[in-house]
Design goal:
Elements: E1 3-6, H1 15-25, E2 29-31, H2 38-46, E3 59-62, E4 65-68, H3 70-81, H4 88-110, H5 125-153, H6 168-183, H7 185-190, H8 196-207, H9 209-215
Parallel strand pairs: 1-2
Antiparallel strand pairs: 1-3, 3-4
Length: about 240
């Protein structure tokens, strides 16, 4: 059966974490909002008078089942796509890591919308500059130091975040790092090789045949200034823990 993925048209956003898993698995799926009247269809499902109505995209339909929230979707898809560990404890550990990735994605978003999502970036630029400076200097290293430690501590080797084989967590770390390099190129470059295992994972994922084909295809939505990761030069900087 074909999976139906619902996310805003034109945005990689949080839906991209799900797309990468579907693409790597070679799964049949339709990106609904990119089809004719797809956004209206998505909004109809969200606004339905139903206990199953999702609050916001992304969400996934598998037959009559609707699964919402990025980490929850991947927790559902992982075993079905061969992208999750077999052991239950490892699956839950991977889910926890995916939620931590989601936390960092939310903080990256809030660098350009620190006051309210209902306001334009231009309406909150001073606050965004302060938030971005703290994110670059304190939050990026706090999160990425943690993920580097998890990779280093993996008893099966630092190539994967959990266990000996590729999981959706590895794909998600790749996209997280790509987003950070897009939004904060100076800051990320200035950190150099502080996270060698993360940097290696980022490039290894990009070389996977199915991922490489996807990244080169028109199915891939480029990063842009309407998504979660946005590049505003005034929010970037070369400081890595002290002064810019």
């Amino acid at each position: 059966m074909t999976y139906a993925l619902y996310y805003w048209d034109g945005l990689p956003g949080r839906g991209e974490f799900v797309r990468l898993a579907l693409e790597q698995a070679g799964a049949d799926y339709v990106d609904i909002a990119r089809s004719r009247d797809g956004t209206d269809t998505m909004l109809d499902i969200m606004e339905a008078d139903s206990a199953a109505a999702p609050f916001a995209p992304p969400f996934l339909k598998d037959g009559n089942l609707i699964v919402s929230q990025t980490a929850n979707i991947l927790f559902y898809l992982g075993p079905r796509l061969g992208l999750a560990p077999e052991a239950e404890g490892d699956r839950h550990r991977l889910n926890g890591l995916q939620m931590t990735i989601a936390d960092m994605v939310a903080e990256a978003h809030d660098t350009h919308h620190p006051v309210a999502t209902s306001l334009y970036y231009e309406d909150q630029k001073p606050e965004a500059a302060r938030r971005a400076a703290d994110f670059r200097k304190a939050r990026i290293p706090k999160y990425l130091d943690y993920f580097e430690r998890v990779l280093t501590a993996n008893p099966d080797g630092p190539k994967h975040i959990v266990g000996p084989a590729l999981t959706y967590g590895d794909l998600s770390l790749h996209h997280l790092l790509e987003g950070l390099h897009y939004a904060f190129p100076q800051a990320m470059t200035a950190y150099g090789d502080r996270w060698p295992h993360l940097n290696a994972l980022r490039h290894e994922i990009a070389r996977l045949p199915r991922i490489a084909a996807y990244l080169a295809s028109d199915r891939r939505i480029p990063f842009n200034e309407n998504g979660v990761f946005r590049h505003y030069p005034e929010l970037d900087g070369v400081g890595t823990g002290g002064e810019d």
